[in-house]
Design goal:
globular, 4-stranded parallel sheet, 186 residues, 7 helices, alpha/beta
Length: 186
């Protein structure tokens, strides 16, 4: 069962299980209790798709969050990564994946219709597409931008290119090309 978790192969899973068994009282039992609580209380936010303990998550419920902006992310882990950075003070929308012809994932399997409903009902003025720079992520971004073309909303995306502290010699060709195309005047 542990080997089915992301990032754990059979050997890593075996090591983790053996560690849990050895530390039954101090690690396994408390972990089991926490996992039962999570299984009983965790739910998807009806508004944005984040994970919380209420029908509407703390981010959507917060009056301090800037209204008018929605940051669209692929998955909850991406939302949490954005929150760790503390650079965005608006609200989010979790798609639940990306469009993928190979995996038969179309717009209706994602939360794209819900995004469009939110834009119309919440007075959104800007949609920030913060999707991964993969083929499926870029395809999804273009699809969403096309769908929003008739609405009075600004559609932007995260900048791509050379990371802070990155050295050109260590970057792949695609990153260098993206950085060159996204250059700006100093």
């Amino acid at each position: 069962m542990m080997a089915k978790l992301p990032g754990l192969g059979p050997r890593s899973a075996r090591r983790a299980v053996l560690h849990l068994i050895k530390k039954r009282g101090s690690v396994l039992t408390p972990l089991s209790d926490v996992m039962q609580t999570v299984a009983a209380t965790a739910r998807e936010c009806l508004n944005c798709g984040n994970v919380g303990t209420a029908d509407i998550c703390d981010i959507c419920d917060s009056q301090k969050r800037a209204t008018g902006e929605i940051c669209v992310v692929e998955d909850v882990s991406d939302l949490w990564a954005m929150e760790r950075g503390k650079a965005f003070g608006g609200r989010y929308h979790v798609l639940g994946g990306t469009l993928s012809a190979l995996d038969n994932v179309g717009p209706d399997e994602l939360r794209i219709p819900k995004l469009i409903d939110r834009i119309k009902s919440e007075g959104i003025t800007e949609v920030i597409l913060a999707l991964n720079a993969t083929i499926d992520g870029v395809t999804t971004s273009h699809y969403i931008a096309d769908e929003l073309e008739t609405l009075d909303v600004r559609v932007t995306s995260l900048a791509q290119g050379v990371p802070i502290g990155g050295e050109l010699d260590y970057l792949d060709d695609g990153t260098i090309q993206a950085a060159l195309k996204a250059r700006r005047q100093l």
